[in-house]
Input
Amino acid sequence: MNHIAKRLTWLAVTLVLSLTLVGFQPSQAQQAAKTTIRLGYVPVLIYSPLFVALEKGYFAQENLDVQLTPLQGGSDSVVQLAAGNFDAAVGGIGAGLLNAANKGLDFRIVAPMHSERPPLSTSLVISATRASEIKTIADLKGKTVAINATGAATEYWLAQALQEGGLTFSDVKLATVAFKDVPVALQTGAVDAAMLGEPQTTLQVKSGVVKILADDFIHGFVSTYLYMGLPLLKDHLPAAQGFVRAYLRACRDLQGDALHDPAIAAIIEKYTKVPAATIETASHAYYDANGAIPVTDIQTLQTYFLSRGELDYKTAVDLTPYIDTSLVTEALKTLGIYAAPTESATMVATMSATQTS
Output
């Protein structure tokens, strides 16, 4: 083989090897190890942003390995966060969280989760067999009423409901029953009424087991939030930013009549074990697509738990040091500000789609 032939052969082999290596070259995302973020959820509708972000691949696109653990109540997340078992938490501002902060748990509220408007996604229900006996909230005087956890945000919900009927906690016997156990507790008479979250509410109403006593006692109040521990924020800031970015994308997917989308309903079914057809008819929660944190609502919850004597301290403290809006601000640089379509714009889009079809 002459010199030119040898050189051509060498170039050909080099080219083949180069192409082979390129073909097996891992992507930048594959080269970087995924960051694991652990947190819990309660299998009810209000946790949908976590379900949607995970199942639609939003977390994966941020190179995150998000691990969700089912819990009985949102307050359990605080315990796990304090113990270092969770990196983040989603749940209500409750007595447990406030007491943990008072004892030195360092965390940050980085985004809101949900708010509710009538018809509420967390309602006060009774057994359908007692509808003739318990007709109004006032009829609960002297009876046993359940929430899923003492000192949780649902306790504040119940307080507002009782107030609508001219009652206070001194007028009822307070019990704790997990949402999943509410139907049986009502049927057996263990409790007379209970707070129950969607989509279980709609499922049990359709099954003839429960009846909604009240679902109009909250008007746009935000009681649940996304929290992060300082180890995640300080040691893995890009991952924390990516989590919030993915989370807000999911919140945007849940605007308006999102539950009517079969794909969204199927995702929620996977985590709540409630049929998608039922989820599509459930009362939905509301999510701020731009992640604005309502400080006033947080302070209101602190004032409430102080009035109940459930806090380790006696005077309200400034909670703003626990609020970190920087992750949402960073996310909006990429996502932009979300503007809900106006009614007229929606009508034009609908008409245009109809004419096209």
About this structure: The chain has two domains: 33-117+221-340, 122-214. The domain at 122-214 is CATH 3.40.190.10 (D-Maltodextrin-Binding Protein; domain 2). The longest helix spans residues 3-23. The CA atoms of residues 110 and 324 lie 5 Å apart.
